[in-house]
Sequence to fold (90 residues):
Amino acid sequence: MAIDHGHQGIRVNCICPGYIDAGLAEGYFQSQADPVRAREEAGKLHALWRIGKPEEVGNVAVFLASEDASFITGAAILVDGGFGSGLPPK
Fold:
């Protein structure tokens, strides 16, 4: 899409989040014997050892929509706290 619409000045990017504390995984955490521990373990799947906040994804969306990102198109932006970096950590 970035290639198809770039000549029209339309930028197309993708935000790829890790675990974000936005409610989607809450049912899973609550179904576990120890929901607090399950949440902590999910956080440890990320290099930053925590689950992300919705505003951290939103900040990237605002940036991509701004003129500060005017030369970014066709990009997949990871907002995953290092989830995709080959973890789990030691």
The first strand starts at residue 14 and ends at 17. The mean pLDDT is 93. Strands lie at 14-17, 76-79.
